[in-house]
């Protein structure tokens, strides 16, 4: 008995368009889509829902390796988790290879490392751009008031989704996660 086929699509921000990825993936039972940074796989609601839903014999299709993970460790852990559930993962933009074979593991590790390199390059270019914008006096960081932050903390404790909290505060989810993860001063 063959299982279901699912697509996993990820774009880094809500302003990015997922149409290119969706167009490359076809004949599926359901599409799971995250609009969140590729920094890690833990904060991706739809990826986590997909992981929980898949069963033995299912297939997960992903446009490219960097859409699933942006570093080798997350990539290998995700693939191992799917494998342990009896789920096959196929990357549309890559040659087909057996991730169970040692040569397949080598290929996936190299692809994961390339994705990690790309992410670090993006971060470096972004930091350089921010530095230039600061020199020109046009860079502005996101700020929220202490009152808003108190409301946000209360909402978090009550289980309100982070995306809703960020929307209410008129900040990006990325900014909210950064404040939560790194304890950044985000107050006026």
Automatic annotation (TrEMBL):
Record field: transmembrane: none
UniProt keyword DNA-binding present: yes
Keywords: DNA integration, DNA recombination, DNA-binding
Cited InterPro entries: Homeodomain-like_sf, Recombinase_CS, Resolv_N, Resolvase-like_N_sf, Resolvase_HTH_dom, SSR_resolvase
Any GO molecular function: DNA binding
Segments forming domain Resolvase/invertase-type recombinase catalytic: 4-137
Active site: 12 (o-(5'-phospho-dna)-serine intermediate)
SMART domains for this protein: Resolvase
CDD domains: HTH_Hin_like, SR_ResInv
Position of the signal peptide: none
UniProt entry tagged with the keyword DNA-binding: yes
Domain of life: Bacteria
BP GO annotations: DNA integration
Family statement drawn from the similarity comment of this UniProt entry: Belongs to the site-specific recombinase resolvase family.
Protein name: Resolvase
Species per Swiss-Prot/TrEMBL record: Corynebacterium resistens (strain DSM 45100 / JCM 12819 / GTC 2026 / SICGH 158)
């Amino acid at each position: 008995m063959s299982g279901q086929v699912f697509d996993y699509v990820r774009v880094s921000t809500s302003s990015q368009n997922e149409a290119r990825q969706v167009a490359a993936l076809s004949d599926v039972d359901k599409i799971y889509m995250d609009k969140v940074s590729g920094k890690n796989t833990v904060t991706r609601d739809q990826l986590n829902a997909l992981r929980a839903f898949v069963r033995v014999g299912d297939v997960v299709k992903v446009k490219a390796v960097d859409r699933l993970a942006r570093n080798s460790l997350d990539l290998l852990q995700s693939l191992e988790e799917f494998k342990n559930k009896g789920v096959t993962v196929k990357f549309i933009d890559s040659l087909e290879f057996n991730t169970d074979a040692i040569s397949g593991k080598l290929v996936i590790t190299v692809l994961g490392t390339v994705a990690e390199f790309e992410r670090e390059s993006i971060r470096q270019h972004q930091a350089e751009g921010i530095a230039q914008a600061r020199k020109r006096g046009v860079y502005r960081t996101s700020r929220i008031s202490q009152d808003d932050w108190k409301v946000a903390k209360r909402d978090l404790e009550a289980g309100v989704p982070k995306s809703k909290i960020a929307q209410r505060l008129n900040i990006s989810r990325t900014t909210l996660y950064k404040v939560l993860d790194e304890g950044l001063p985000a107050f006026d």
